[in-house]
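Exercise 3.2. Students should predict the tertiary structure of the chain below and write it as structure tokens, then compare their answer with the key that follows.

Predict this chain's 3D structure.
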Amino acid sequence: MRKKIPTRILRLLGSKGTMEILLELQESPKHFNELAESVRVSQRPISPRTLNRRLRELESAHLVSREVLPSRPPRTLYRISEKGTKTLNRVLGLQQ
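Answer key:
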């Protein structure tokens, strides 16, 4: 029997920008500004404020991990987690 995706995760996946963020992070880990640039030019652009909110929600759901790099000024690197990859693949599988 397959595990169900929790309703909270499904709601988050349906939120503006979430799929674009996960797809970008699936390609490679990215800094906030790199993500902001890539989702800004996407079909559904999102503001930096919304991007920040989505990243926090994705991190809280354990779909994305966040690493603060020791530099001046501090830089943050985001990467998709194993759970995020599995969830993304399951959602993309529904499209087929």
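Discussion points: The chain is about 55% helix and 15% strand. The mean pLDDT is 86.
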